[in-house]
Amino acid sequence: MRCPNCGYEDEGNYCSNCGSPLNQPAATAPEKGLRWYERCPACRAGRLSKTVSRGFLGLTTTESYSCPNCGAVFTREGSRTFKLSNISDTSRPAWRDCANQTLSDEEWKRIADGGVSDARQRELNLDHLITAVREGQIPPLNAAAPGSIVPKKGERLVATIPAVTLSEPRSVRETHGGGAGPSVRIAKGVYIRTGGFASRSESHEEIRSIDSGTLTLTDRRLVFAGQKRTTSVNLGKIISIKPCEDGIAINREGKQKTEYYSGLDNAVLRFSIEGRDYEEPLSGAFFARLIEGLLKTD
Asked: What pLDDT shows up at residue 29?
């Protein structure tokens, strides 16, 4: 069956490409001045009807809008916000994506016209940004602070992160042991152990903090300027990058031990996509994708 909204060939009750009902006419183009409840955001076909119910002694009122076509119920939560609180067919994409979500009337109207909520649009734009960055398409990110390092000729600052902790594996040796003979009482509360002393020594590695400072990424280098140590690594020397919860772990040529940089979420990533401005804490996963993308631009 061909979807009346997008033309995609599909089977079942709903289009897997756009989510429109396959047995319903396609939603018409957005009409200027159309109010959000004049087209149901769940089925894009019915017109919502308003209901006001009163609570005990009429002290409270509940305002809701229901769709006679799909049974969707939108309950007013604020002056311009409504929650999708119920629906007859819970397999509908609108319920799957927006069940019990409180959105503005503008968002519901956008969904009724075939769009998505602000939160979903944010997710889509972030996914788009990560994909573009990984492919080497680095947009202006506004994550670099001038004056963090002296760039070389033709070098471009990409990101500057303060208060980053540099950690490395360190060998730690522990000794365990004790007396091997019996104890003999020589006075009240005083004992002496006879025989030899047995002990064993064990060694293991622990990730320990080495220094703290500023981590700067350019289109050519990864530079760490700490209180005790300063390193400058050409991106081409990096062998592997592993994102961590709030940082990255890198292995590079000429260095046997893995270097861990944590605290990347101290920086804020600011970017714009299609006229929308976003501000997100920097993550280890995004920073790793950023380095991978820069390597592809060489």
From this structure: 38
The residue range of the domain holding 258 is 157-296
CA distances from 59 to 54, 55, 75 (A): 7, 6, 18
Q: Answer yes or no: are the C-beta atoms of 163 and 266 closer than 8 Å.
A: yes
For residue 93, which phi and psi values (nearest 5 degrees)?
-55, -35
Could you say which of 54, 84, 116 is where a domain stops?
A: 116
Structure confidence at residue 145 (pLDDT): 60
What is the rounded CA–CA span in Å between residue 123 and residue 119? 6
Scored b (16 or more CB within 10 A) or e, 18-38 reads bbbbbebebbeeeeeeeebbe
Q: What is the pLDDT of residues 196-229, one digit of tens each?
A: 555 566 777 888 999 999 999 999 999 999 999 9
What pTM was computed for the model? 0.64
CATH number at residue 176: 2.30.29.30
CA distances from 277 to 59, 125, 222 (A): 42, 10, 27
CA distance 17 to 19: 6
Helix (H) or strand (E) segment spanning residue 159: strand 157-179
pLDDT-flagged residues of the chain (< 70): 1-34, 56-58, 142-148, 174-201, 298
pLDDT of residue 266: 84
Q: How far is CA 129 from CA 18, 34, 75, 134, in A?
A: 22, 33, 35, 9
- Which of 116, 143, 167 lies at the terminal end of a domain, its last residue? 116
Q: What are the tokens at 184?
A: 């003999």
Mark whether 83 and 174 lie in a shared domain: no
